[in-house]
Amino acid sequence: MNPVEPTPQQLAELTDEELEHLAIAWRARAARGDQSAFGLAHALEVERRKRLRDSQLATLPPEPAPRRPWWKFW
C-alpha cells in the first residue's frame, strides 16, 4: 500500500490535535521500516511545524518604541 501525500487543502482541514496524532503515528510507522510512510510523515510534520511557528509569531508582543534621549541635540 502506497499512501498518497495529502494536499495542503486537506492538511488545512485537520485540527491541530488530529495533525499531531497523525504525524506521530506515521513517523512511528516509518521508524518501523515502512518506506512508503516517510513522505507522508514528513508532510504532516512540516504542516505541524508551520502551524506552531505561525501561532508563536501571533503571540509576540509589539516592538517597544525607541527611547528618545533626555537631551536635545542642537
Round the Cα radius of gyration to an integer and report it: 21 Å
Major sheet description:
none
The DSSP helix count reads 3
Percent helix, as a range, is 55-70%
Distance between the termini: 77 Å
**Which shape, going by the Cα principal axes?**
rod-shaped
Tell how many strands the DSSP assignment holds: 0
Secondary-structure-derived class: mainly alpha
Strand content: under 5%
What's this entry about, in short?
This protein has 74 residues and is mainly alpha-helical.
How would you sum up this structure, described in words?
This protein has helices at residues 8-13, 16-31, 37-58. The longest helix has 22 residues, at 37-58. The mean pLDDT is 83. The radius of gyration is 21 Å and the shape is rod-shaped. With 74 residues, it is mainly alpha-helical. Helix content is 59%, strand content 0%. It has a domain at 8-58. α2 packs antiparallel against α3 (37-58). It has three helices and no strands.
